[in-house]
Specification:
Elements (H helix, E strand, L loop, with lengths): L1 H23 L10 H32 L5 H30 L5 H26 L4 H57 L5 H29 L3 H33 L11 E30 L4 E6 L4 E3 L4 E47 L7 E5 L2 E6 L4
Antiparallel strand pairs: 1-4, 2-4, 3-4, 4-5, 4-6
Helix pairs in contact: 1-3, 1-5, 2-3, 3-4, 3-5, 4-5, 5-6, 5-7, 6-7
Length: 396
């Protein structure tokens, strides 16, 4: 009977340790923590790990010597082994909690995850108290069984949680990369405004967009799989998302290299009296002055004078007003306009306008813009949600 009981508790101990090993093998979170707090938790984690290994060795030695936990020394070392296992698990959870606290994921999701971790720590403390209060081999066996069951459940939930956090962090990377996509589009508009061929850059940008879209789909799939508890499949989707993001970053390098080659042709300079502005939003955008303008969107485009229009792609058939020397386009498209005393106005949705020269830009609606008023002034970025007027060049 004694030997049977020894085998049972030995199996329980092994299962608990194995569970800890799986979680401990997850990625290193150290570098994402606030340094001081992380260092403190990491030191406690290392101390718990050393005490756990020491307790394990003592348990193995006494088990081999006495073969029976009715022996007080063997009983005490078995209890010590279990208690140190609880301590080690709790220290790991504390490190993971710091990692989540310092991650830039959605606050609501962050609080949800932190609450779950708090519940897991409370569960471990409860099971540790029962182990500590055990007075007989039978009580210790029951406490060990409960700890094993609780830890198996926690371990599975932690794997889900680690996957969710990884997916949410990749979402943030993708969102930032989508912001880069807008800036690359701005670069293309600059070159188009000077009449340079941008077909190669547009193809690279399309590849970049495709990689981001694929990455986003994989991340969303991973989150759904995490909710279903299908962690291995979720991890596969996360690896695929990471692969797509890496490919997108390669596209950025390729794009910048080719853009610099084109910009170095000397056609991207318009004098020391000029500035530049780039705006994106919904509503109205109207540029007046001496400038090169690249505009695109879905709405009504009005240009004056008529001969200032360099090229138009998309939109519908133009309506010309010879009396007022204006031309009007309707629909979805893009246009390049160049000249002195020009006025370019577009009213609609998903409007993007780039201009370089001297003049003023009137905005009314919602969106954001970046402006460099003169060549020697810094680029500044602002948002708008009502009427705004921005000047560039010596018109300021």
């Amino acid at each position: 009977m004694a030997m049977k009981w020894v085998k049972v508790i030995s199996v329980m101990l092994v299962l608990i340790v194995a569970g800890m090993a799986v979680v401990a093998a997850q990625p290193n979170f150290e570098h994402a923590h606030a340094k001081e707090k992380a260092k403190e938790k990491y030191e406690k984690y290392k101390e718990a790990w050393e005490r756990y290994k020491e307790a394990k060795q003592k348990y193995i030695q006494t088990h081999q010597k006495y073969k029976d936990l009715r022996n007080q020394m063997a009983f005490n070392h078995a209890k010590g082994f279990l208690l140190n296992g609880c301590n080690f698990a709790e220290r790991w959870l504390e490190r993971f909690r710091i990692y989540i606290e310092n991650s830039k994921i959605d606050d609501a999701k962050k609080q949800e995850l932190l609450s779950e971790i708090g519940e897991y720590i409370n569960t471990i403390e409860e099971k540790r108290a029962k182990i500590n209060n055990s007075q007989t081999p039978e009580e210790l066996r029951e406490a060990a069984r409960e700890m094993r069951q609780a830890w198996n459940e926690i371990r599975l939930n932690l794997r889900v949680m680690v996957g969710q956090v990884a997916a949410l962090k990749l979402q943030i990377v993708i969102q930032k990369a989508e912001g880069v996509e807008v800036r690359l589009e701005e670069r293309i508009q600059q070159l188009e405004a000077y009449g340079l061929d941008t077909s190669e850059l547009e193809a690279i940008l399309d590849e970049y967009s495709d990689h981001l879209q694929n990455a986003n789909e994989s991340v969303n799939s991973a989150l759904a799989l995490c909710e279903e508890g299908k962690i291995n499949k979720a991890n596969k989707e996360l690896r695929e998302a990471t692969k797509e993001i890496k490919e997108a970053f390669k596209d950025i390098k390729k794009f910048i290299h080719r853009w610099r080659e084109k910009a170095s042709h000397g056609k991207i300079f318009f004098g020391n009296e000029t500035g530049e502005v780039w705006a994106h939003g919904n509503g109205t955008a109207r540029l007046s002055g001496d400038a090169i303008v690249n505009v695109r969107g879905n709405g009504t485009l009005t240009v004056s004078p008529i001969d200032a229009v360099v090229s138009v792609v998309g939109f519908g058939s133009p309506t010309k007003d010879e009396t007022n020397n204006t031309v009007i386009y309707e629909g979805v498209g893009k246009a390049i306009v160049r000249g002195k005393d020009i006025t370019v106005s577009i009213i609609g949705e998903n409007i993007t306008l780039f201009a370089k020269g001297k003049g003023s830009l009137y905005l009314n609606g919602t969106g954001y813009y970046r402006v460099k008023k003169l060549p020697d002034t810094p680029m500044q970025e602002f948002s708008y949600n009502n009427e705004t007027t921005v000047c560039i060049g010596t018109a300021c």
